[in-house]
Backbone:
């Protein structure tokens, strides 16, 4: 039932997007720069589609996580590992105020930016390391 509703909703949104797209393509650059209402309508359709997709993904993930105990434990382990890496990144981050390009950034802003960078580096190292480890173990087993 839900599949049919989503299918017809997607079809309706696609038709609306096609109509707005054709209307935008029929206008000249001067007309579009004077009146950006068509672009606003297209952006509204884009935001609606994005929100629908995000809602469906969240619903699908929550339903599948709570469907079995094993899936829930696996998800919690992954979430716990991510939080551990995030806490380590936050602990390593420097929170001193800085001046770049004439702008002064507070200690909190600097700490959050550094945390994001360290988190990215840590997750990248873990991902690359796991791919290398997987490749090495496959070569050894052959």
Residues:
């Amino acid at each position: 039932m839900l599949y049919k509703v989503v299918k017809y909703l997607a079809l309706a949104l696609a038709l609306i997007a096609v109509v707005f797209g054709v209307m935008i393509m029929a206008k000249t650059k001067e007309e579009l720069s004077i009146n950006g209402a068509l672009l606003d309508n297209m952006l509204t359709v884009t935001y609606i589609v994005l929100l629908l997709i995000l809602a469906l993904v969240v619903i699908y993930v929550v339903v599948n996580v709570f469907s079995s105990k094993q899936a829930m434990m696996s998800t919690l382990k992954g979430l716990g590992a991510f939080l551990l890496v995030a806490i380590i990144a936050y602990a390593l981050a420097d929170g001193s105020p800085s001046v770049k390009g004439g702008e002064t950034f507070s200690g909190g802003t600097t700490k959050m930016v550094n945390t994001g960078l360290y988190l990215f580096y840590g997750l990248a190292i873990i991902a690359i390391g796991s791919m290398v480890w997987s490749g090495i173990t496959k070569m050894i087993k052959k």
